[in-house]
Amino acid sequence: MKSVVVCRLTGEDWKIWREVRLAALADSPGIFHGDVHEEKAYSEEQWRVWTEDGVKAVAFQEGAPVGVAAGRVDAKRSGAVELFGMWVHPHLRGARVAERLAHDVVTWAQESGSSVVELWVIAGNDPAERLYRRIGFEATGQYEVHPTDPNVRKYVMAQRIADR
């Protein structure tokens, strides 16, 4: 397999964030909170602000973005970091790219002084559930209905950073 490098984006990298975010929405529209057509219409300023909000870890293979994980401090949840927007290009799924991206967000959370990282996972998404359990996340028991599909449930998994 060709080498994969994980890097954190800055506001100047907004075009990369846009590219990988739109690729994720196009590939897996039922997973994310967002609409590819709506987000395509965002302005440069909207993308820059969003890129700078928290952390965006992107996996590159031969210079092309092939995966992403984002993190932000969730003020509503006592300063916990929310890991969100996890996506890996289909040809690299199973190659531990998602694990590396998630670890980078957890490291950023630790650097930011947070003691817990939380994420939402779609109930029944077995590969995602296995990944998150393997790297130290546990179900919290908190569930809700997915906002774009009332037949889909999602739940919170969390990792205490002190437990790493």
Structure, described:
The chain has helices spanning 14-27, 36-40, 44-52, 97-111, 126-134, and strands at residues 4-8, 55-61, 64-74, 80-88, 116-122, 138-146, 149-160. It is of the alpha+beta class. The longest helix is centred in the middle third of the chain and has 15 residues, at 97-111. The radius of gyration is 15 Å and the shape is globular. The model has no long low-confidence stretch (mean pLDDT 91).
* Biggest sheet strand line-up: 1-2-3-4-5-7-6
CATH superfamily: Gcn5-related N-acetyltransferase (GNAT)
Nearest-integer average pLDDT: 91
- Helix content percent band: 25-40%
Distance linking N and C termini? 28 Å
Task: Please provide the ordered H/E string of secondary-structure elements.
Answer: EHHHEEEHEHEE
Report the sheet with the most strands, covering strand number, pairing sense and barrel closure: 7 strands, mixed
- Rounded to the nearest angstrom, the radius of gyration is 15 Å
Q: How much strand content do the residues show?
A: 35-45%
Poorly predicted sequence stretches spanning 5 or more consecutive residues = none
By DSSP (H or I, 4+ residues per run), the number of helices equals: 5
Question: At the first level of CATH, what is the class?
Answer: Alpha Beta
| Topology, number of strands | 7
Q: Could you please say which CATH topology applies here?
A: Aminopeptidase
State the secondary-structure class: alpha+beta
Overall shape: it is: globular
**Annotated CATH architecture:** 3-Layer(aba) Sandwich
